[in-house]
Amino acid sequence: MVDVTKTCLVHIAVLISFFRFGHPGSDLFLLVPLGYLTVSVVFFFGIMLTDQLRRSRPVPVSAPAGRGVLQTLVALPADYGILCIAFLLAGWRPGFVVIYCVLFAAHGLVLLAGIAKWYRDLRRLDRAAAS
Asked: What is the reported pTM?
C-alpha cells in the first residue's frame, strides 16, 4: 500500500509543480503526469494481480528464474529508484521535463511488454491446468 501511495503522490506532485511553476507548451502537457501516473499504477497492480493469479492455479508454479541482465536493463524505466534519480534534475526544469517524458514513454513500453508476457505466462498456466 505504501509503494503505490508513493508512486501516485510523486506524479501528483509533478502535476502540481507543472501547473504551479510552468510547463512547456499548452495545458495539454499537464496530461503527461496523469498518463505517467496511470502507467505506473497499472504496472504495479499488473505485477500484483499476475502474482496472485499464478498462486491461485492448481498447477505447481515453479519459482521464477533469475532475471537476466538484458531484462533488468529493459525494466529500468519502471524502477522507482530511476525516477527518483531523475528528480536530481528538478531544479533544471528543461532537463527534468525531457527526462520525465522519456521515462514516461519508456515505462509505457515496459508496461506493454509486461502485459504481453503476463498474458502468455497465464495462458500457459491455464493450458497446463487443463491437461
From this structure: 0.83
